[in-house]
């Protein structure tokens, strides 16, 4: 095989023959065929990806709200225990829509790839992206490929924009005193799995990233009603998500440390590295703030889905210290849980 | 999580808090620990909430990075300027030196690499032979044996060691001799004590008749050690007591102690913010001088003591102040733009208080 059949070259992003070949070989077979289930429904694409036109069309909903979100994804390593950048990119954008209470309908997919990137790796990434997408009814409507010279980019960056439809979008701040805070599952799995996978630590663990598409589980919870706010605790982890919610809503969120679902491996790694599991990313978890009258029903709905089997009430909303998060520690102490400062660095004793 | 013994058990914590309240004297007592990991355990778990108002616990010189003299940082940078690759622990990088840090030197082209252990410096030396590699060895008796192990294990010829290792017991003694410290008892560090044993404190602290309790790092370990300290104070029976027997023995780790003694000898050492403390440094013995980076690069000993205006790190490191006593704390001085070393080192009291909101027990 020639080099340009196995590795990405600048020509693959140049808009000529080689790029058409790449689209025909890699993109269209994966994303070109899938169409919306009801072709007259909101979100259906009259001109879709396979048209390879300058743009794609999306039918407007008759009622409700269109929700739009965008995210760029880079991760090191690109393939990690439990997932890869493809799954991460699809799930990340789909989850942002889900957290708005929106059913995902359309995604875009733009890739910036380093010259020399192995095409087999690209295929693996696209397969993961397609598999994650298949967990919802959403389709890829358009995309873009650019190639950067070797050395100017480390591997690959994916950008995805997503469109979804909500009857009424759910914000991350419209809640009040007395509401109940629920975590949809174990906290810190993704961040700790990625840290453990970094070669400099020489760690071996069974821990896998939790990267997952949340919409099927969230759809069940939304059907119960009473959900005031949602957020996925990605970068900065649970600590960042809760602080953002407290600040925006002007409330105080009090969390019960002993109630936070944590895997023993995550607890062990966090003690070893000196990094709090509350400050590292999750890629398949949701924080829900719920009407107390509906809390147990929402919890049951979450637990009825495999992704939510470890869902738990972890705290409640008060007015004690507005815009702050308080952690009642397991041993019986209390402290503020603040916004993490940045990427956590392991402790050296 | 199921554990045979639950080290965060709230019921046991309340029992210990009751004991602490009964044993606590009416007049204020100041307890001091000398370990960033203890401060993290105390602050992160909100343990000050269990102490009556009369009992305060402060971090002293418990952050190896924070007490490393600015002159040693400058020395490392000058070795880098002579072409060496400088290998340093990550949280050393941003510590302000004489007029530059390792990080700012790196941005000027000095080859500074962060490592997690001395082993990694060896790997770099082997890979990049024949380039000279300097391991900037910082840390107390917990990390010093690892440096010693490297020294006796036939390291590559292009590796040398800039040692800034320190002994914690002489610093504990020195603090008692300083004016205005008013220390009633020491919570001694569990990690260091696994090496030193409870015996390791006796010589240096013999003339001081001060209560010392070795403590572990789980919430209940800390509360238990505090209760033992208060009992010693109450009974007026000062001695070195083991509050962490599941990890620490009387004699410590003989293999590690022998290794330390083989490679290092004690010498007076400069502690940032405190001054020179007799016999508190670990320097390479003459048999290992071929590994001594100072000799290899001929960098002269530099005069130290950089004062940072307005920064109360010296008071924090001598347990005369808590971070929030400093006017710069969380205003001009934050982990993102640190003024003094205590805000940089991950074990530094200011950095810990900033990260875990130690300024007021809720």
**Any idea what the shape of chain A is?**
globular
Strand content of chain B: 15-25%
State the share of residues found in helices of chain B, binned by percent: 25-40%
Neighbour order of strands in the largest sheet of chain B: 2-1-7-8-9
Mean pLDDT of chain A: 90
How is the biggest beta sheet of chain B arranged?
5 strands, parallel
Mean pLDDT of chain B equals 92
CATH architecture of the largest domain in chain A: Alpha-Beta Complex
Spatial separation of the terminal alpha carbons of chain B: 27 Å
Q: Total helix count of chain B?
A: 15
CATH superfamily of the largest domain in chain A: PurM-like C-terminal domain
The count of strands of chain B amounts to 11
Indicate the CATH architecture of the largest domain in chain B: 3-Layer(aba) Sandwich
Q: Sheet bearing the most strands of chain A, described? A: 7 strands, mixed
Principal-axes shape call of chain B: globular
**Contiguous helical run count of chain A:** 9
- Tell me the quaternary state: heterodimer
CATH class of the largest domain in chain A: Alpha Beta
Molecular structure report:
The complex is a heterodimer of chains A (349) and B (362). The model of chain A has no long low-confidence stretch (mean pLDDT 90). In chain A, helix 2 (17-32) packs parallel to helix 4 (119-133), helix 3 (85-99) runs parallel beside helix 4 (119-133) and helix 6 packs antiparallel against helix 9 (295-303). Chain A is 29% helix and 22% strand. Chain A has 349 residues and is α+β, with helices and mostly antiparallel strands. Chain A has helices spanning 3-6, 17-32, 85-99, 119-133, 189-197, 215-224, 237-249, 264-273, 295-303, and strands at 65-73, 79-80, 83-84, 103-114, 139-148, 156-166, 180-183, 227-231, 252-256, 287-290, 312-318, 325-328, 334-336. Chain A folds into two domains: 3-45 and 59-166, 60s Ribosomal Protein L30, Chain: A (2-Layer Sandwich), CATH 3.30.1330.10; 180-336, Alpha-Beta Complex (Phosphoribosyl-aminoimidazole Synthetase, Chain A, domain 2), CATH 3.90.650. Chain A has nine helices and 13 strands. In chain A, the strands form three sheets. Chain A has a seven-stranded mixed β-sheet with strand order 8-10-7-11-9-12-13. Chain A has a four-stranded mixed β-sheet with strand order 1-6-4-5, with helices on one face. In chain B, 56% of the residues are buried. With 362 residues, chain B is an alpha/beta fold. In chain B, helix 1 (10-23) packs parallel to helix 11 (219-235) and helix 2 (36-44) packs parallel to helix 15 (349-356). Chain B folds into three domains: 10-36 and 45-56 and 170-242, Rossmann fold, CATH 3.40.50.11750; 67-168 and 258-289, Rossmann fold (3-Layer(aba) Sandwich), CATH 3.40.50.11740; 313-356, no CATH class. The longest helix of chain B has 17 residues, at 219-235. In chain B, the strands form three sheets. A five-stranded parallel β-sheet of chain B has the order 2-1-7-8-9. The radius of gyration of chain B is 20 Å and the shape is globular. Chains A and B meet through strand 13 of A and helix 1 and helix 2 of B.
